[in-house]
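Two records follow; treat each independently.
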Amino acid sequence: MNGIKYLTKLDQIGELSDVERSALKKVTEKFVFRTNDYYRSLIDWDNPDDPIRRIVIPDIEEIEEWGGLDASGESMYTTAPGLQHKYERTALLLVTDVCGGYCRFCFRKRLFLNGCDEIARDVTEGIEYIRKHEKITNVLLSGGDPLMLSTNKLERIISQIREIEHVRIIRIGTKMPAFNPYRIINDPSLPEMIRRYSTDQKRIYLMVQFNHPNEITDAATESISHLIKAGAIIANQTPMIRGVNDDPKTLSELFKKLSFIGVVPYYVFQCRPTSGNRTFVVPVEEAYEIFHRAQMDCSGLAKRARLVMSHSSGKIEVVGKTDKHIFLRYHRAADPKQTADFLIFKSNPDACWFDDYDEPIMEYSISSNGDSC
């Protein structure tokens, strides 16, 4: 499959009935639709609950009023055009507002709305910011999907970052191995470029996104193999999504299949309270039970993922629960003083986000020498 055709209108999806297309028009008037013929081919159209369909085909429940467009407060940390600096050692550059497909549960769907100006069309100012902040050792390229850029354009960005001595890791956030693995398979210049800039002392990481085992096709596996052979390190992150991977068997199979092809299971994200996402959200404590049961069925190499919420204050890991309590800790904090803070809350089975919990009944802070409240 050489020429991948991108599809941006529901009229191009012949498997949908006229009644379905008419009903879903309300959704696409609010949130943009995009997929491609490769990814569409993974859908079992005889199964109305097919997980790949759930990922990319609009759902009428998306029009429910719920959540906001910047659920993790990213605007709070924007320090230069397209650049976010939330954690001391990590900078994030938004380099494109296009993806191989638009996940219906995307937490940055605001980037695909008319009038959004968060993307760095010119990365000069962001690169200069990174150059001046010597504590930044990691730069994450995201968007959108950076692999939607031409390899030449992507290399121009990467080459500038590689000139900055204190940046040791470049990360590329992409779902292209799942959405369109032929972007990688059919462009030998891409692994060649990675080979040039992923060195023994300064690696390039590909932060891929496989949400369901059915995305790990032969073509996807081949694309991953090309990237690994080029010297990239591959890690996977996925939200937990209602109707896609919200059962232990499916999530465990995903973890295992990833480990088999050389991809590290890295993060499972709590689905963010983004506008339109209510239908995709699994409550925090239910998500923990699913996650924990999935890991019980995995080898050590397949169970390395952490369950986290990307909250405006930091990455908050869900580390345990009892019938009465939920245990959280800051895996990474925007305020370094909060790093590793451990929090105990009264159980709330309906909580979908950190803010849904009342004040912690106990808080332990390592940085404050064990003071608790």
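The next record belongs to a different protein.
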Amino acid sequence: MLTAESRARDFPSLAGMHYLNSAAESIPPLCVQDALQAYWQDKQQGMRGRDGHFAVMAQCREISAQWLGLTPEEVSFCSCSAEAYNLLASALNLRHADEVVVSDLDFPSGATPWLAAPTRPKVKVWRSRSGGLDATDLLPLLNHKTRLVQVSLISFYNGFRLDWQPFHDAVRQLAPHALISVDVTQALGRVALDCIGADCIISSTHKWVLGLHGGCIVGIPESQAAQLTTRAGGWFQLSNAFDADRFERLSTKTGAASWSVGMPNFAAIYALNAGLRYLGVIGVEAVTRVADPLTQALHAGLLARGISPMAPRRQPTDSGIVAFQHPRSDAIHAALQAENIHVMHQAGRLRVAVHGYNTEADITHFLSTLDRALHGPAGDMP
């Protein structure tokens, strides 16, 4: 990462490829492959291998806590963000009179569990304007009935980065009974987190943190452990799972520990531990120092071509995502694929994601291919 030499050494699959889709799937470094091999070796030990499994999980909890600004006891793991949000719903046990606020820039995993609740609360949508969320639009949605406000620090949809402090202050002042849950999937490993005071922090593990599918980090501060203890059945999160009274009552571990309800996905945890430690050696500041100018160049390049990115950028370090819509998105995407340039394409939206392993050549090649797609033989449309 960051230099030609380390990029070639740690990410050999990037050779000949312009990968600009880390917001969907990252390219893990070879140390993650080594971690998976270590998992395999431990797995070959049968039950004795569990000593290695649980040792790595403890290491992963420690490094995850450092990234989230929490203690290891305040961090746990489940299988994905969708499971995490359904567990959050079980912990809150919301009623019809309760209110939940979500945003229209959030990923479905964080926005939909409240619609599936047996006693469905009232769900209010904080709607974006011009691709961004303004805290003044949130104010009318907050009151004493608000139990949860769910946001993403960086939107998967268009890369908008939430201005955290005005948002946090508004919730605390106008919704005194509300918990704040934040999805940092599109931030962790790419930008420094600033979500101080969040009650629940959730992140998938297969994007910017260079891990695999089947993992999710959950951070619950000790101050919220009692409120955010899940009500799920299982065994790993129970303190009486094998006791004589196990069919009569549940004795659930509190807080973050209650979110690991079954056997952990150790392969994903080995990978996450390796990915976070790899990024930790480099430092997120170094990642942003290299990747942010490339993101800015991409943003400026689109504007110079008369294409308006979908989200405003207040600061150079807002996010690693630049998204735009275009009537010829299908043709643009086809041209990019032909040049081995990887981006996200969905419903007329193209999303480009820049990580620390990207280079100036990736951005230059993307923009030149975009020019050919817009003005080449397929048409002459600005």
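Discussion point: Residues 378-382 have pLDDT under 50 and may be disordered. How would you locate this feature using only the token line?
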